[in-house]
Amino acid sequence: MSSDIRFTDFKTDKQPTWCPGCGDFGTMNGMMKALANTGNDPDNTFVVAGIGCSGKIGTYMRSYALHGVHGRALPVGIGTKLANPELEVMVAGGDGDGYSIGAGHFIHAVRRNVDMTYVVMDNRIYGLTKGQASPTSREDFETSTSPDGPKQPPVNPLALALAAGGTFIAQSFSSDSQRHTEIVKEAIEHDGFGFVNVYSPCVTFNDVDTYDYFRDTIVDLSETDHDPTDYDDAKSAILDADKEYQGVIYQDEGSVPFDEREGLSEPMHDIPDGAPEDAMDLVREFY
Amino acid sequence: MPADLNWAIGGEAGDGIDSTGKIFAQALSRAGRHVFTSKDFASRIRGGYTAYKIRTSVDQVESVVDRLDILIALTERTIDENMDELHEGSVIIYDGERTTMQDVEIPDGMVGLDVPLKSLAEDAGGAIMRNIVALGAACEVTNFPIENLDESLDKRFKDKGQAIVENNKEAARLGQEYVAEEFDHDFDYDVETTDNDYVLLNGNEALGMGAIAAGCRFYSGYPITPATSIMEYLTGRLDSYGGKVVQAEDELAAINMALGAARAGARAMTATSGAGIDLMTETFGLVAQSETPLVITDVQRSGPSTGMPTKQEQGDLNMALYGGHGEVPRFVVAPTSISECFWKTIEAFNLAEKYQTPVFLVSDLAMSVSEQTFPPEVFDMDEVEIDRGKVVDEDSISEWQNEKEQFQPHFPAADGVSPRTFPGTDGGAHMTTGLEHDELGRRTEDTDVRIEQVDKRQQKVETAREAEEWDYREYGDTDADTLVISWGSNEGAMREALGFLDEKDIDVRFISVPYIFPRPDLSEEIEAADDVIVVECNSTGQFADLLEHDTLTRLKRVNKYNGVRFKADELAAEIEDKLAEPSEVEAE
Ligand SMILES: Cc1ncc(C[n+]2csc(CCOP(=O)(O)OP(=O)(O)O)c2C)c(N)n1
Ligand code: SF4
Asked: What gap in Å lies between CA B25 and CA B94, rounded to an integer?
């Protein structure tokens, strides 16, 4: 790790193919800045991405990275982190990726509390497949597969995370670059699973959850008397359906990450050239 | 034919059948006798017939036969279930005082030993020990020194305290004395002890032990019969080597965690069966496309769908070979015996890392639950060799960087194998993806690059085909006109079937194949034979199909798919029948 790392060191020479104006640009820049600001460099960072426009992030960020299959990025990140706790592991994906096909993994990743960061670029739509309803789409949001709206209430990812025992739950808005960067940085620094739901507008398929909408409605919790270490405060903010919040919503200061609890700190990549020295003991167990 | 003894204890699930059988098997093994065990069990925790069978001899045994000499029947059904295998002179130990056993009729010619198992157990300290009383009775029947059983009881119960150990020993003694005093003494089943020291283990234990020997550090899985015991074995043991076992939320997570760990540089494995393999298939393609070394174990059971979860089958071969969309380079290795479960696991890890591909390690239920004795040298750890393939470190990384100092993880090397670097290595940051990519790992749809990368991945298989030995094991008479071929756990039964066939003057050449893909070229052997019979536990003959494909020859098939493994004597009879059928016309 070198100290003179700048966030541009995390950029690749590949031009993003996101639509001009897509919220994912801002989301990604904030992630790079947060990584650089926390003293990480590309060679000790592992970024796992899901599938979707959001999932392309691994291609545009320079680091060790894996772009997996739809919805399964979290378990890859967990495996990577446990196998080498010295790595900074960051998982990124979309709302469809994380809360639909990957919803099961989401809940279990939250409760497992491995020391890593999960950033969801929530545009309340399926972008890459060209505009179908996502789990966070509004009940009446008309799309190609829901002409009258999905007719189901949207998933509340923050509530899911809180209910699953989340130790760090935050939300940010990709175009508020400074706050978004700060919040992701706090997620990285958190001892445990840092979860950030990022409002990352899709300018092509979502004309409801737009920049203007978020700009007008968002409330920054740091400007209120919200206490993120207070579970009840967190609960009321999360269940307040009428508001869009940004900031750290809940943080359990007593969080001890899974990897630490399990005593994992050494990378697992060094193994002997042959069987372990005491391997015959394994055989003797069967006498 | 070795002078062997076939022993079983049967009852309802929950009767402690398994642990009782294991105690006796261990006692026999400690007394220097070879042992082979098999289990009949139903997919339920309480109730349902279950049995633990032991075949023991002073010679090596690795199969079951259709014969039962001594049966401990805890329920009447146990006798019914085994009627076909019981014979004149078979000894049946049962408790006639048990309400359900009062009307038991011992068939003519068999020896019924009505032993008050429960009351004797109560005399020793508790009814729960009635199985141990029965073991004591069995010791008397076989003239087996009860001290050997004592050792087993020590091992089994020492964690529960000395008092429990002593009570159990007393229970065994009471059973032994009861038989000695109450019955005529000449049972004809004496078992001879020797000075040999054997270990007793099943296929899944051998596989898990192989994984540790091979340096596996990360295992993630989701419970499923019959793969779970691999996870249970590794839990607690991997930790002492700095590794970790994770019980994932499902098989999708299990394989993805293993993939993540493998990318981080750990030797990683996941294991499952049936439905779990289906769920893993999507990520299986990603493993291959991202060129990640990973061992995926499939302990086959009866399918499709949930099929018969506790029954034997070898029905997943096609899935292992062809599973996954697109064209997925892979290796498929299938151990043919319990000791091979150990050695082939080590080989699977080496193949995975040398060629940066997924390796399917295909086992089966019969092998996973059967225990067998071995001299410990069979698992000689000094023989274990670890080859991690082309791992690049800080010092050598510049050789694999392009002019812009970018590391090229998918460099199209002539042998198809690219350099590999573990995350954390300076100068190695790179992307891997399931999308088609260029040598840097960047997504591409460039037609030339696509072809280059597909060929490169496929080339690994070709390189391995040349570089590795895809051999087979051979038994019987090399010059025989009849050739029998099998894969997986059928080897043991078939080897013994050779003896039965020999008695009928039928000479057989037997080839047991541990590699499904790539596999040895058997065309010469097949051409040289008049009759070729492929033996496998499935209904369609999936391996036979492959061999036919290789040789353009129609082969005869012996298939079994009722959920029960082949038995040696039965297999011999089936082969004899097949030989009576006319050989089909051979293609030119
Ligand atoms: C198993 C599987 N099913 C479906 C798809 C097709 N697919 C690709 S992206 C996507 C939705 C992505 O939506 P979201 O996660 O919200 O990301 P966004 O594109 O909006 O950033 C789907 C359904 C796939 N790649 N894999
Ligand atoms: S479709 Fe939407 S989410 Fe995808 S790149 Fe365009 S704006 Fe972004």
From this structure: 20
Q: Is A129 in the pocket of ligand 1 (CB under 6 A)?
A: yes
Contact B583, B531 (CB under 8 A): yes
**Is A22 close to ligand 1, i.e. is its CB under 6 Å away?**
no
pLDDT confidence of residue A3:
61
Q: Is residue A75's pLDDT more than 60?
A: yes
Task: List, as one string, the DSSP characters of B397-451.
Answer: GGGGB-TT--B-TT---TTSPPPB--TT-TT---EEESS-B-TTS-B---HHHHH
pLDDT at residue B578, as a whole number = 96
Go through chain B and tell me how many residues it has.
Answer: 588
Whether A281 and chain B come into contact, CB under 8 Å, resolves to no
Residue located via tokens 């034919």: B1
Q: Report d(CA B515, CA B523) in Å as an integer.
A: 15
Give the separation between CA B412 and CA B182, rounded to whole angstroms. 79
Considering only CB atoms, which chain B residues are within 8 Å of A83? 217-218, 244, 260-262, 264-266, 268
Chain B residues in contact with A43 (beta carbon < 8 A): 423-429
Rounded mean pLDDT for each run of 10 residues along chain B, 588 residues in total: 82 92 97 95 80 96 93 94 94 93 90 97 96 97 96 95 96 97 88 96 98 98 98 96 98 98 98 97 97 98 96 97 95 98 98 98 97 97 98 96 96 97 96 96 96 97 97 97 97 96 97 98 96 98 97 94 94 96 64
Give the separation between CA A152 and CA B140, rounded to whole angstroms: 71
Cα B309 to Cα A9: distance, rounded to the nearest angstrom: 53
Check CB contact of B217 with chain A, cutoff 8 Å: yes
**Does the pLDDT of residue A67 top 60, yes or no?**
yes
Given a cut of 80, whether residue A96 has pLDDT beyond it is yes
pTM higher than 0.90: yes
Residue A77's pLDDT band (boundaries 50, 70, 90)? very high
Ligand 2 pocket check for A211: Cβ under 6 Å:
no
**Alpha-carbon gap, residue B42 to B56, rounded angstroms:** 24
In ligand 1, which atom is closest to the CA atom of A70? 26
Residue appearing with tokens 């065990």:
B37
Indicate which residue's Cα is closest to atom 5 of ligand 1: A70
Question: Is the Cβ of B253 closer than 8 Å to some Cβ of chain A?
Answer: yes
Task: Please say whether the beta carbons of A218 and A245 come within 8 A.
Answer: yes
Percent of chain A at pLDDT above 90? 96
Residues in chain A: 287
DSSP B505: T
For testing contact with chain A, the best of B204, B259, B371 (most A CBs within 10 A):
B259
Would you say the CB of residue A46 lies under 6 angstroms from ligand 2? no
- Containing B322, the helix (H) or strand (E) segment is helix B317-322
Contact criterion met (CB below 8 Å) for B392 and B400:
yes
Inter-chain touch A105–B252, beta carbons under 8 Å? yes
Closest chain A C-alpha to B434 CA, distance in angstroms: 6
A102 C-beta closer than 6 A to ligand 1:
no
AA letter at A88: E
**Within the 24-43 window of chain A, which residues sit less than 8 Å (CB to CB) from chain B?**
42-43
Kindly list the distances between the CA atom of residue B427 and the CA atoms of A33, A42, A44, B342, in Å, as whole numbers in the listed order.
Answer: 20, 9, 10, 37
Phi, psi of B295 (to 5 degrees): -100, 120
Return the H-helix or E-strand segment holding B550: helix B542-551
Please, which pLDDT band fits residue A4 given cuts at 50, 70 and 90?
Answer: confident
CA atoms within 13 A on the CB side of B196: 21
Tokens of B31: 């007394």
* Residue in chain B nearest A108 by alpha carbon: B249
Provide the token pair at B231: 């996870």
Ligand of minimum distance to the alpha carbon of A132: 1
A207: pLDDT strictly greater than 80: yes
